[in-house]
Amino acid sequence: YEAATNAVAATSQVRPTNPPPPRSVYEAGVAMPKSPKVFYARPSGAASSTTWFSRLRRLSSSPLFSLACLIFGLAGIVFGLAATSRALVAGYRCRHFEPTSVAVAWQKPGLGEGGDGGGGGGAFDGAVSRKRQKVLGFVGIQTGFGSTGRRRSLRKTWMPSTREGLLRLEKATGLAFRFVIGRTTDASKMAALKKEVEEYDDFMLLDIEEQYSMLPYKTIAFFKAAYQLFDATFFVKADDDIYLRPDRLSLLLARERTHSQIYLGCMKKGPVFTDPKLKWYEPLSNLLGKEYFIHAYGPIYALSAEVVASLVALRNNSFRMFSNEDVTIGSWMLAMNVNHEHDQTLCEPDCTSSSVAVWDIPKCSGLCNPEEKLLQLHQKDICLGRVNSVSDG
Fold it and tell me: In what order do the strands lie in the sheet with 117-118?
């Protein structure tokens, strides 16, 4: 037993010549990196996009980028407030300002039916009752569909081209101004007129055919419509081919007068035209004789409120109509107890220090070539009321 025990002990003390490998790298004493790095395979383009993304992140975190964002944000707020306030102002104007243009329709159709004029609340909107506007004078500038150029020149001279300008002129002089025109069956001309009304808002539209042979009827229709719309001391008929000084016209109408029924204008008398080939041919010349009675020139004249009230009370077919509107009105004035007031300042051939209306009398019944002449007159200091200073040195 003792011998066997010693043999086992001797055997356990013998070491093998080739020891077995360690069970792990830790047992082998291999040093590992303290912070191992992991790499992933990427395409070559991804590396470029990662670089741009990193740059963008650095840019977005910079103070300049934050300042730019702040500026853009404030600009957006300011723009939004401006747009909102503009819409509110536009809405306020639409609600609180009535259009100055007006369409007038008769209660009964037809020239021989009579009827008084009814006022319209806006352009092309039919007959709507409205309170008469109080003014010193209402000036109806008679115009036609072929006079677009004249209206353009007038709006560049003494006639304001905006609604605000018309209101300022009315406030300064007490005079209200509107272009007066009838209707036509030409759809394109009516469409062009409607566009002009919407742009300038300075018309009185009459429900009557617009043509030269109908001028006496148009004139009566104008006075009736104007009386229904305006509570004026005077009603002035003017053509669209004269140069006018509204301030001086206001002073002329505001004069003290002892007579309440006034027929104001440049009075004339002259031969009756019996030749059908002439422009002012009068078919009823046999009723007039060789010479016309005294009456005002057609380019501009005025009737006082009492006179126009008498015209409004008449039926359209109750008095005789002559071929020319100035003769027609003049003949009616003979039948009334009116005071014929002649004023030379209403028919001056050139601007003077006192001229009210300028036109090429007697060469033309208005200005010859009015589109150009209106602009030329408006360049003259004397037409504008400016006095050039003259030094003696």
Answer: 117-118, 102-106, 203-209, 175-183, 133-142, 230-239, 295-304, 262-268, 339-342
Nearest Cα residue to 202 out of 131, 145, 128, 122: 122
Domain chopping of the chain, boundaries: 102-106+131-380
* Contact (CB, 8 A) for 166 and 246: no
Please state, in angstroms and rounded to a whole number, the distance separating the CA atoms of residues 249 and 236.
10
Cβ partners under 8 Å of residue 336, min gap 6 = 261, 307, 310
Alpha-carbon distances of 176 from 20, 43, 133, 169, 226, rounded to whole Å: 123, 82, 10, 8, 11
Q: What's the average model confidence in pLDDT over 18-34? A: 48
Residue 341: CB partners within 8 Å, gap ≥ 6? 257, 262, 263, 264, 265
Q: Encode pLDDT of 132-161 as tens digits.
A: 999 999 999 999 999 999 999 999 999 999
Within a 10 A sphere around the Cβ of 156, how many other Cβ atoms?
Answer: 13
State how far the Cα of 323 lies from the Cα of 332, in Å rounded to an integer. 14
What is the bridge-based pairing of β-strands 262-268 and 339-342? parallel
Amino acid type, 288: L
Could you tell me if 80 and 188 are in contact, meaning their C-beta atoms sit under 8 angstroms apart? no
Phi and psi of 116, rounded to 5°? -90, 160
According to CATH, the topology of domain 102-106+131-380 is Spore Coat Polysaccharide Biosynthesis Protein SpsA; Chain A (3.90.550)
Determine what percent of the chain falls in helix, strand and coil, rounding each to the nearest 5. 40, 20, 40
Per-position b or e across 300-336, b if 16+ CB within 10 A of its CB:
bbbbbbebbebbbeeebeeeebbbbbbbbbbbbbeee
Dist CA 347 CA 330 (whole Å): 17
Give the closest residue to 116 by CA, choosing from 235, 232, 207: 207
* E strands, the chain, in order: 102-106, 117-118, 133-142, 175-183, 203-209, 230-239, 243-244, 262-268, 295-304, 339-342, 357-358
Q: How confident is the model at residue 38 (pLDDT cuts 50, 70, 90)?
A: very low
Closest to 211 in 3D by CA, of 277, 122, 145: 145
